[in-house]
From TrEMBL, chain A:
Organism: Cytobacillus firmus DS1
Gene that specifies this protein: trpA
Protein name from the UniProt record: Tryptophan synthase alpha chain
Job description of the protein: The alpha subunit is responsible for the aldol cleavage of indoleglycerol phosphate to indole and glyceraldehyde 3-phosphate.
Pathway annotation: Amino-acid biosynthesis; L-tryptophan biosynthesis; L-tryptophan from chorismate: step 5/5
Entry-linked CDD domains: Tryptophan_synthase_alpha (cd04724)
This protein's GO CC annotations: cytosol
Family listed: Belongs to the TrpA family.
Catalytic residue list: E49, D60
TrEMBL record, chain B:
First-tier enzyme category under EC: lyase
InterPro entries: Trp_synth_b_CS, Trp_synth_beta, Trp_synth_beta/beta-like, TrpB-like_PALP, TrpB-like_PALP_sf
Lineage: Bacteria, Bacillati, Bacillota, Bacilli, Bacillales
Keywords: Amino-acid biosynthesis, Aromatic amino acid biosynthesis, Lyase, Pyridoxal phosphate, Tryptophan biosynthesis
Entry EC no(s): 4.2.1.20
Protein name: Tryptophan synthase beta chain
Protein family: Belongs to the TrpB family.
UniProt catalytic activity: (1S,2R)-1-C-(indol-3-yl)glycerol 3-phosphate + L-serine = D-glyceraldehyde 3-phosphate + L-tryptophan + H2O
GO cellular component: cytoplasm
Record's function text: The beta subunit is responsible for the synthesis of L-tryptophan from indole and L-serine.
Self-association state and partner proteins as the record states: Tetramer of two alpha and two beta chains.
Annotated pathway: Amino-acid biosynthesis; L-tryptophan biosynthesis; L-tryptophan from chorismate: step 5/5
Length: 261, 400
C-alpha cells in the first residue's frame, strides 16, 4: 500500500483530520530542506507537499512565485531535490508529495523522472497544469511505479466531472477552494462548505481543501466540511520569518477535536 | 499527409503538440469556448456579422501589392506584399480580436482580459472592446511598456485598463502568465482573448481560423493576378499568428513553400534571440506543448528581439508540428538584418513596416534572388511601423 493511502487510513481510524503543509524546495538553499521536513513532521504534518520551482508558475500567487524565484536563484534543480529527498527519506515516515508544473518533468524525461522519484521515495505528484484531459502522458507510468497522481477539482468543475475525476483519483482529492491562484485570503465564498460536502459525497477518497487557507480559523472551518487542509503560502511566509511556533499552532489547529453538542 | 491534413484532433493536439495543459479551474471555460466556437462557425448570422465588420470596420480585403522596386532590387522572384499593415489599428491582430470579442459577446461574457507584447494585440483588443462595449483589461510587461509607450496610451484612449507586469523578463511571456492568473481568478464573467496561435486548445485553432482570412485572400488575389499559386509565402513568427493565418490555406498546396521567420536577435549563436523553432526544444508553457527556449532543467529562458512582438520564448503548437513534419520551413533573421530591411523597404516602396514584419522582408530579400524570375513569393506585411519609429531612431542614432 502506498504511504499516502496508509496515512489516510490511520487518520480515518482515529477520526482525525489531515494537515498538509507546502514548502518550496531550495527556498533558503536546498541544504535547509531536510531540516524543514523533519520540523514539519514533528509538528504533526500528515504529509508534506514539496514544491519544485518553475520559472512560470501560472497557478501560483506572489508568495509562492517569490519562493520559487529564491529557490531558482539558489540553483535548485529537480535532480538536486530528488537527491536530497533520497537522503532524508529513511528518517521521514510521512508521505512526501511533489508539486510542480509539467515542464521541469518533461525536460527531465517523464520516464526517467518517475523512476528516479520512485527510487528517492516520492509518494505522490500534484501537477496544477495537468487536467484530466492530458493526464495519460504521465499518470499510467506514475501509478505503475507506485506514485500517486493527486487530482484537483475546483469550484468551476461541474459535479459530473468531479465525480469522474474522483473515481480515477488516488491518495486524496485536492479541492481548490477559490477561483484563482495560491495565496492567503481573508474569506471564502459562502457556498464553499456546501461545495466541499458535495465533493466529499461523490469522492471515494479523502478530500483535502487547499488555496487561500492561512489561519487556524480557516482550518477549523474547512475541516467541518472535508478531511483536511493544505496550506502553502502562509507556511512559506512563517518559515521565512522564522515564526516556527505559529507553524506549530497552525498545524495543531487541525488536531483539536470538534465538540459536537 | 497534406491531403488529409485535419488538425488539431478532437483533443486539441497537433501530433504530440498542443493540448490543454491548464489549471482545472479553466477547463470549464475552455470546453465552453470550444463548444460555442463550433456553434458560431455553423451560425450564418455570426459569420455575416464578422464578415461585415471585417469589410466595413477593418477595411478588408487588404491589398496584395506587387512590390516592383523591391523585386528589381532583389533580382529574382516577383515579390508581393500582403498589406495587413493597412488594417484598422495597423496590424493583422484585429482579425482575431474582433472574432473573439464577438464570441465573448455570444457567451454572455462582458469582460475581456488580454496580454500584449508590442501592444498591437492590446490595441486591437481594446478597439474591439470599445466597439462592442466590453470591459477590457490588458496585461503588458513593464519592459514592453517602456518600448511601446504610444501603444499604451492608445489602449487607454480606447478605454482599456493597462496593467504593467514586472515579473520575469517583464515582456510578453510574463504578460501571458499574469493574464492567465487573472483569468483563473475571474473566469466566471471574463473571456481571455489570446492574441496568438498558442495557449490551450481551442485557442491555437480559433486564432488560426480567424487569421486565415490573410491566406485565403492572398490565394484568391494571387490567382487573379498571376493565374497560379505563389511559389512561396513568407511571414514572421513570434507566437505565430500572422504566419499561421497565411500558411493554413496553403497547407494542402504542396507546391507552395511556407517559410516562417523567427527573430535571431543578436544571433542564434548567442543567448539573445527568440528563435524557439531553430534553437528550442519541446515543452509545456502557457497551456500547450510546443517548442520552447528553455534550459536543461526545463526553466524557460528569456527571449530577445528588437521587436517586442517577436520577443516570446515559445511558438504555437501547429508551427511546432509543421516544423517536425517538414511541411513548413523556419529561418531566422537578426535585429541588424531586420533594421536594414526596414530602411530598404521604406526607401524603395514608401512603406514603413513593423519591426516584426521587417524580419519577413529581410528573409524574402535573401530568398528571392535564389528563385527564378517567373516565380513569385508573398511576404505577409503583418503590421505598420509607426509604433517602432522611436526604437528605430534610437538604434540608428537619429540617422536614416
Amino acid at each position: 500500500m502506498n504511504r499516502i493511502e496508509k496515512v489516510f487510513q490511520n487518520l480515518k481510524q482515529n477520526n482525525e483530520k489531515a494537515f498538509v503543509p507546502y514548502i518550496m524546495a531550495g527556498d533558503g538553499g536546498l541544504e535547509t530542506l531536510a531540516e524543514k521536513i523533519t520540523f514539519l513532521e514533528k509538528a504533526g504534518a500528515t504529509a508534506i507537499e514539496i514544491g519544485i520551482p518553475f520559472s512560470d508558475p501560472v497557478a501560483d500567487g506572489p508568495v509562492i512565485q517569490q519562493a520559487g524565484i529564491r529557490a531558482l536563484e539558489a540553483g535548485t534543480t529537480l535532480r538536486g531535490v530528488l537527491a536530497a529527498i533520497a537522503e532524508i527519506r529513511p528518517i521521514v515516515h510521512i508521505p512526501l508529495i511533489f508539486m510542480t508544473y509539467m515542464n521541469p518533468i518533461m525536460a527531465y524525461g517523464i520516464g526517467n523522472f518517475i523512476s528516479d522519484a520512485s527510487g528517492s521515495g516520492v509518494d505522490g505528484l500534484i501537477l496544477p497544469d495537468l487536467p484530466a484531459e492530458e493526464e495519460e502522458i504521465i499518470a499510467p507510468i506514475a501509478e505503475k511505479a507506485g506514485i500517486e497522481i493527486i487530482r484537483l477539482v475546483t469550484l468551476t468543475s461541474p459535479l459530473e466531472r468531479i465525480q469522474e475525476i474522483a473515481a480515477k483519483g488516488k491518495g486524496f482529492l485536492y479541492a481548490v477552494t477559490v477561483n484563482g491562484i495560491t495565496g492567503a485570503r481573508k474569506g471564502f465564498k459562502g457556498e464553499l462548505g456546501k461545495h466541499l460536502e458535495r465533493v466529499k459525497e461523490v469522492s471515494p477518497i479523502p478530500v483535502l481543501a487547499g488555496f487561500g487557507i492561512s489561519e487556524p480559523e480557516h482550518v477549523k472551518e474547512m475541516n467541518q466540511h472535508c478531511d483536511g487542509v493544505i496550506v502553502g503560502s502562509r507556511i512559506i511566509e512563517l518559515l521565512q520569518s522564522g515564526e516556527l511556533a505559529k507553524v506549530e499552532e497552525l498545524i495543531a489547529s487541525s488536531k483539536i477535536e470538534e465538540i459536537k453538542l | 499527409m497534406n491531403a488529409a491534413y485535419a488538425l488539431p484532433d478532437e483533443r486539441g493536439h497537433f501530433g504530440t503538440y498542443g493540448g490543454r495543459y491548464v489549471p482545472e479551474t479553466l477547463m470549464q471555460a475552455i470546453l465552453e469556448l470550444e463548444e460555442e466556437y463550433k456553434k458560431a462557425q455553423a451560425d450564418e448570422s455570426f459569420q455575416k456579422e464578422l464578415q461585415d465588420l471585417l469589410k466595413d470596420y477593418v477595411g478588408r480585403e487588404t491589398p496584395l501589392y506587387f512590390a516592383e522596386n523591391l523585386t528589381k532590387y532583389a533580382g529574382g522572384a516577383k515579390i508581393y506584399l500582403k498589406r495587413e499593415d493597412l488594417n484598422h489599428t495597423g496590424a493583422h491582430k484585429i482579425n482575431n480580436s474582433l472574432g473573439q470579442a464577438l464570441l465573448a459577446q455570444r457567451m454572455g461574457k462582458r469582460k475581456i482580459v488580454a496580454e500584449t507584447g508590442a501592444g498591437q494585440h492590446g490595441v486591437a483588443t481594446a478597439t474591439a472592446c470599445a466597439l462592442l462595449n466590453l470591459e477590457c483589461i490588458i496585461f503588458m510587461g513593464e519592459e514592453d511598456i517602456r518600448r511601446q509607450q504610444l501603444n499604451v496610451f492608445r489602449m487607454e484612449l480606447l478605454g482599456a485598463k493597462v496593467v504593467g507586469v514586472q515579473s520575469g523578463s517583464a515582456t510578453l511571456k510574463d504578460a501571458v502568465n499574469e493574464a492567465l492568473r487573472y483569468w483563473v481568478t475571474n473566469v466566471e464573467d471574463t473571456h481571455y482573448i489570446l492574441g496568438s496561435v498558442m495557449g490551450p486548445h481551442p485557442f491555437p485553432m480559433i486564432v488560426r481560423d480567424f487569421q486565415s482570412v490573410i491566406g485565403n485572400e492572398t490565394k484568391e488575389q494571387y490567382l487573379e493576378k498571376e493565374g497560379k499559386l505563389p511559389d512561396a509565402v513568407v511571414a514572421c513568427i513570434g507566437g505565430g499568428s500572422n504566419s499561421m493565418g497565411m500558411f493554413y490555406p496553403f497547407i494542402k498546396d504542396e507546391t507552395v513553400r511556407m517559410i516562417g521567420v523567427e527573430a535571431a536577435g543578436l544571433g542564434t549563436d548567442t543567448e539573445k534571440h527568440a528563435a524557439s523553432l531553430t534553437k528550442g526544444t519541446p515543452g509545456v508553457l502557457h497551456g500547450a506543448l510546443m517548442y520552447l527556449l528553455q534550459d536543461e532543467h526545463g526553466q524557460i529562458q528569456e527571449a530577445h528581439s528588437i521587436s517586442a512582438g517577436l520577443d516570446y520564448p515559445g511558438v504555437g503548437p501547429e508551427h511546432s508540428y509543421l516544423k517536425d513534419s517538414g511541411r513548413a520551413e523556419y529561418e531566422s533573421i537578426t535585429d541588424e538584418e531586420a533594421l536594414e530591411a526596414l530602411q530598404l523597404i521604406c526607401k524603395l516602396e514608401g512603406i514603413i513596416p513593423a519591426l516584426e514584419s521587417s524580419h519577413a522582408v529581410a528573409y524574402a530579400l535573401k530568398l528571392a534572388p535564389q528563385m527564378k524570375k517567373d516565380e513569385g513569393l508573398v511576404i505577409c506585411l503583418s503590421g505598420r511601423g509607426d509604433k517602432d519609429v522611436e526604437t528605430v531612431r534610437a538604434r540608428l542614432g537619429g540617422k536614416g
